[in-house]
Design goal:
This protein is 30% helix and 23% strand. With 649 residues, the protein is an alpha/beta fold. Helix 4 packs across helix 11, helix 7 packs across helix 8 and helix 13 packs across helix 14. The longest helix is centred in the N-terminal third of the chain and has 17 residues. The two termini are 33 Å apart. The site of ligand 6R9 has 25 residues, from helix 11, strand 25 and strand 26. Its EC number is 6.2.1.1.
Length: 649
Amino acid sequence: MTEQQKVHPVSDDFAAKAWIDKEKYQALYQQSLDDPEGFWAEQAKRLDWIQAPTKIKHTSFDSHNVDIRWFEDGTLNASANCLDRHLATRGDQTAIIWEGDDPNESKHVSYRELHAQTCQLANALKELGIGKGDVVTLYMPMIPEAAVAMLACARIGAVHSVVFGGFSPDAVAQRVIGADSKLVITADESVRGGKQVPLKDNVDAALTRPGTEVCEKVLVVKRTGGEIEWKDGRDVWYHELVDKQSSDCQPEEMNAEDPLFILYTSGSTGAPKGLKHTTGGYLTYASLTHQYVFDYQDGEVYWCTADVGWVTGHSYIVYGPLANGATTLMFEGVPSYPSHGRMGEIVDKHNVAILYTAPTAIRALMAHGDNVMDSSKRDSLRVLGSVGEPINPEAWEWFYRVIGNSKCPIVDTWWQTETGGILISPLPGAMDLKPGSATLPFFGVMPALVDNEGNLLEGAAEGNLVILDSWPGQARSIWGNHERFIQTYFSTYQGMYFTGDGCRRDEDGYYWITGRVDDVLNVSGHRMGTAEIESSLVAHESVAEAAVVGFPHDIKGQGIYIYVTLADGYEPSDELKKELTQWVRKDIGPIASPDVIQWAPGLPKTRSGKIMRRILRKIAANECDGLGDTSTLADPSVVDELIENRASR
Ligand code: 6R9
């Protein structure tokens, strides 16, 4: 039997205690499709509304008029739902367990403390002139203040835009400008794997770029006490301003469709898009999926290893768990520091019941052999989760056997920044698991497969993954550019949301995501547009032209392979390769580090001048025998040249 055919049935014992078993899933899923209004009206009751919604669903995927509204006459406050409403019943319960990069550093923040800190920062934000509708950029380490900052924005109706702490000054500048952001919240430095990352220096550099003058203030958390520059009048120490504030701040009454946050993500073309997420639908969806997909039970410690800079951190470290009154663990460091056993050691130290991580992290550990987890027992684990990219069956089985001691179901959760929450995933008490498959849709989600012409495919089939109707967690627009939103997601296939992913559906109706079908790379679960990397490269004086493709990489899933045509007067050299590598890292961030650079005197192009990436991908993957039809190339001989000089790795 190949790994792909293996099935791990739901255990009766697990199903008996789970929120959702097979029958419940079938019944609720059917109901969610037959009567979406009734189903979601009921689910919305899990939140505390100021004005309960009476209008539930108003959505159109028609490409002439994409309009998505949920609970549109309801009002609420997201931070009140994550904090205030828990105070009476669980004020002293731990909301956030923080585990520092240094294994000797950790702390517990109770719901009462988190509430007080959030109110204090909310009052401080007001003092800085921030109010409803203003955009605040967060560029922060994985410390509780990151969650506090998100919740404080939500409390006063400001919109947060979190920028991943591994991104470059240019990325920060681009996002500050794109969202007209008046304030940046950062820290002096972050600490990861024993190394300092100069966040404040990066913000300083970002704010020298033209257009960033909109940003008036920088609020700085003292994390390490490292040396930083200080700009009087602009920079404000977090502790100096926040500690003196009142811990009482009335939450702002927000409409369900008021924006909660913007989050930038890469697409196949152009600059990263700022996806706009709103309040009522997003929070309902994040909270519901967190409870059911992870089968979260009251009192359990739940750990999502993502960074808050990604959507996974938004929905499944902060909003979902806190709306549910969960204890959520936040880890500052990396799984390999101080040793590769760290993840298991954290599980033991904090009694983690649910561990949600990424295939790239699993593969990296797996490369060190089964003994890598010997320093921990991991007996507390009950459910495992995977997100960010397809998990290969070998990594799935290793995760199950070595990390989960062969007793924890794995939920392979497929979703996107655009979807706000998990759309296709097992519910651990309801689905028999097939390693490598995200299995079946969540309540209210209608996935479908279409061929390249947009024809719906029935039964077992492979095609492009689309979603036929809206769900409450869906992004409503691209910040400041609704036309681009429509263009990107709703115009490829009429009346459908196009995910950009390819997918296979098997005879049991299980979905198997095969990866992106557009020019988006997925490197260690991080999305990057090939266009972004190419435009960075051609900005270097030595580069005449560049083409970027992904290739299979054992740990990262996909690696970055770059073909460079040099400008006149430049000669290939190892020094130049190093320089270009540094250039891209500095421009976009270390996650965009090229794995391979190949000099390409010419690139394969059609007669109309389009680069044939299909061919470049094959050469990068060393599949030079199956190049397919090259007869439409303007100059087929460039292909032979590229194969001959294929970079060795
Ligand atoms: C949550 C998140 C989205 C893209 C998505 C797909 C890939 C995510 C996956 C998966 C296979 C899974 N992806 N989860 N592919 N199986 N369980 O990752 O959001 O950063 O926007 O990336 O990631 O290709 O389209 P985001």
